[in-house]
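Help! Submission page says 'invalid entity' but I think these are all valid:
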Amino acid sequence: MSALAPALALDDITCRFAAREGGQPYTAVAHATLTVAAGEFVSVVGPTGCGKSTLLNVGAGLLAPSSGTVDIFGQRLIAANGVNRRAGYMFQADALMPWRTGIDNVTAGLEFRGVSRSEARQRGAEWLRRVGLAGFGDRYPHQMSGGMRKRLALAQTLILSPDILLMDEPFSALDVQTRQLMENELLALWAEDRKSVLFVTHDLDEAIALSDRVVVLSAGPATRPIADFKVDLPRPRDVSEIRMTPAFIALHREIWGAMKEEVLKAYERQKAA
Amino acid sequence: MRLRAVQLLVLALLIGFWYVTTKPGLLPNFYFDKDNRAAFFFGEPQKVFWIVVVWFWSGEIFQHLGITLLETALGFVIGAIFGLAMGLWLGLSSSASAVMDPYIKGLNSMPRVVLAPIFAVWFGLGIWSKVALGVTLVFFVVFFNVYQGVREVSPTLIANARMLGASRGQLLRSIYLPAAMSWVFASLHNAVGLAFVGAVVGEYLGSARGVGYLILQAEGTFDINTVLAGILVLTAFALVLDAVVGLIERRLMVWQPKASETEPT
């Protein structure tokens, strides 16, 4: 394993899904190449339904691509042999276990890895505190608000200290205020130990505010990256304030110029379908 | 409290109607041509009540009730465990479920009460033939619910647990089993009733003890009051068992959201 190997390298990935009865096979992703360097925060933006989640699932080892390779820190990832053990994944939908209390959800990963119960409890309590849920450990997910559940999911993922963090529109279900709070919290946690992050979103504001790099995907089907923008805004950032800065607005205009056509294309296709 | 009062009122009205229509000589005959015929065919509530009282007072009922409850409990537990195991297995293995599908469907659509005579031959007239009948009835209810429950576990939940490092065994314990449990409990309420049916029908077809045996004996002498007393005792205990299942369910399923739940202050 070389020190210079990127944390995550998707090379020439194509994902074709078998046709449902009578239809054509659906190519979600075609010849997509994408790398995330160690410690880099990369956002992937694109129109809705363009296969962003498919790319993440490939990176997570949950989905085997039809062709192409995935390398994790220089090591080949084969989905059939299991998931990407160095990655944490935050899903768009609620993925907490409803039958476990807050702390038991947070410590689930430690439990699966055979960490002793007392140590897991201790680390779980510490993480609950870090995501601002101290005192809520004995609540069940249905007793928490959407924002609290997202913070719980964040703690559940980060407690394992994954080298790569895969995030699939994790905050899209939240209201604007809660969302900006969560984004700031994510940035603060990320700044502590600089994991590699692959963050999927359809919200360009969110992508620019959080990332080092923004990758624009084409409209589906047969999605692939079409543009790559470096975001050199100073850190630490405050996501609600940075949106007002001229540098942010200029970047937004530039990236949106590349994205707009694809969004319209996706819209036309959905209307036609 | 109001609800309970209304419920008791309904019970009182039913018993009153029963009493008035069956009491010999109370009402002019409108269907039967003799005064005591209605009582002969439908029994009389006060007599039924005294039979039940005497049963419990003398302790005569306990050996019969004990046997019936034992058969019910065994049929219920064994059937539920088999149903859970098979439901998990077929729910998780699509190849196994494809192979077994026609057999499961066939066994389920078979009227299984007709197996009772065969079980009597195989397992004798003791409790095990009744347990076997109860098992065949309970099994399918639990099985289909678990099967459904396992297949409807959210894929996100499974993917999340896998990303957190869960092995296959851990997935089973931490995801599939708890997810199936809410379906299991939904089915257990039905299953308790069916375990009772298995026990009583089995006794009815051939036994030396049990409430079904009491009913059969009484029927042989056209003693409708005793038959009805047996039915009442069975009904009461079926309600008790159902309440026990409900109690266990509330204990184990605390995580389930209840409609419009508020925190007590």
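Support: the input was valid. A stray whitespace character was the problem, and the output above is from the cleaned input. The domain at 8-86+162-272 of chain A is CATH 3.40.50.300 (Rossmann fold).
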